[in-house]
Amino acid sequence: MNIKKYEKIKSSVIIFIITIITISIFSKLYLLAVVGILTGILFFSIVRFKTDINIDEREQEIKEKAANITYAIFVPTISIGSFLLLVPSLSKLSVFFKGEFIFTETLGVIFAYLTLFLITVYTISYFFLNRKFGGKSDEK
């Protein structure tokens, strides 16, 4: 990774975090603002801000394992959350049937779309990276 690309990534993360914090404060979603601030602090404390960016094999392997663990935790969590939010609205439970908690069904649908999107992105990226690095489709 060169310095220009690193600076672009750093700038885009900074802009995203500031945007989320600003929107959440104006929307009076203070918990989201606090989570945004904590995420920014965590990001800046972990990420190196040096001009010399060298990624060795150890650091690359750590990044790959972290991404795999994140995917392995996030997809089941959000899919179970989606299921738990969709099932009560379909089972005609009294509270959900009256429409008092209609937002839970909407949230469940959003989680379902996010899960499907994440699985699709992972599958497509795996397919192209496998072909790029010489993987064969007939492997056992």
Q: How does this model look, in words?
A:
- The protein has 140 residues and is mainly α.
- The chain has two domains: 1-54; 56-140.
- It has helices at 3-26, 30-46, 57-90, 94-97, 102-132.
- The longest helix is centred in the middle third of the chain and has 34 residues, at 57-90.
Anisotropy-based shape: flat
* Strand percent estimate: under 5%
Class computed from helices, strands and strand pairing: mainly alpha
Radius of gyration: 20 Å
Number of helices: 5
Number of domains: 2
Short descriptors:
140 residues; mainly alpha
Topology record:
Elements: H1 3-26, H2 30-46, H3 57-90, H4 94-97, H5 102-132
Helix pairs in contact: 1-2, 3-5
Summarize the entry for a quick read:
This protein is mainly α and 140 residues long. It has helices spanning 3-26, 30-46, 57-90, 94-97, 102-132. The longest helix has 34 residues, at 57-90.
